[in-house]
C-alpha cells in the first residue's frame, strides 16, 4: 500500500515537471520545487485558491461536455501537488516539534538524575568519598 501511494505521488511530480507546471502565488509564478520554500500560510492560501477554481468548474452540471477539461486536469494536478507539499511540511513541523519536546523532557530528567547523584555523594562520609576516587 505504501509503495503504491509513493509511486502515485512520484507520478504527479513527474507529470508536473514534464509539463513545466507553474503555480500562481503571492510570491509570483513558481515551479514545483520553489513551492517547498513557501510558508505554511502561503501554501494554505494556494491550496484554497486552486480548490476554489476546481469547485467552480464542478458547479456547472454540463462541464464534462466542455473541451476545457485540460485546465481542470492541470488544476487538479496543481491541487494534488500543493496538498502533498502542505501535508508533508506540516508533518515535518509536527515531528520537529515532538522531537524538541522529547529533548526538553529528557534534559529535565538528566538534570534531576545529576541532582540526585550529587545529593547521594553529599550524604557520604569522607572515607566513602575517598574510596570513590580513581
Kindly describe this structure:
The chain is mostly helical. It has one domain. Helices cover 77% and strands 4% of the residues. The protein contains 5 helices and 2 strands, in the order αββαααα. Helix 1 packs across helix 4 and helix 3 runs antiparallel to helix 4. The N and C termini lie far apart (58 Å). The relative contact order is 0.09.
Describe the SSE topology:
Layout: H1 2-19, E1 23-25, E2 28-30, H2 32-35, H3 40-59, H4 69-122, H5 126-132
Antiparallel strand pairs: 1-2
Flag low-confidence runs: none
Helical segment count: 5
The total count of strands amounts to 2
Number of domains: 1
Give the SSE string.
HEEHHHH
Physical arrangement of strands within the biggest beta sheet: 1-2
Please state the CA-atom Rg, rounded to the nearest Å: 27 Å
Helical content class: over 70%
Biggest sheet character: 2 strands, antiparallel
Percent strand: under 5%
End-to-end distance, in Å? 58 Å
Class by helix and strand content? mainly alpha
Mean of the pLDDT scores? 89
Q: Outline, from the CA principal axes?
A: rod-shaped
Amino acid at each position: 500500500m505504501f509503495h503504491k501511494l509513493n509511486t502515485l505521488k512520484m507520478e504527479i511530480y513527474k507529470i508536473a515537471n514534464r509539463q513545466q507546471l507553474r503555480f500562481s502565488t503571492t510570491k509570483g509564478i513558481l515551479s514545483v520545487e520553489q513551492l517547498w520554500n513557501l510558508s505554511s500560510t502561503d501554501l494554505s492560501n494556494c491550496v484554497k485558491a486552486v480548490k476554489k477554481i476546481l469547485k467552480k468548474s464542478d458547479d456547472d452540471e454540463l462541464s464534462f461536455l466542455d473541451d476545457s477539461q485540460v485546465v481542470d486536469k492541470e488544476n487538479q494536478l496543481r491541487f494534488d501537488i500543493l496538498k502533498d507539499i502542505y501535508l508533508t511540511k506540516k508533518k515535518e513541523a509536527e515531528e520537529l516539534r515532538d522531537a524538541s519536546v522529547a529533548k526538553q523532557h529528557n534534559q529535565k530528567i538528566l538534570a534531576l538524575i545529576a541532582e540526585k547523584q550529587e545529593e547521594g555523594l553529599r550524604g557520604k562520609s569522607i572515607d566513602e568519598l575517598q574510596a570513590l576516587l580513581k
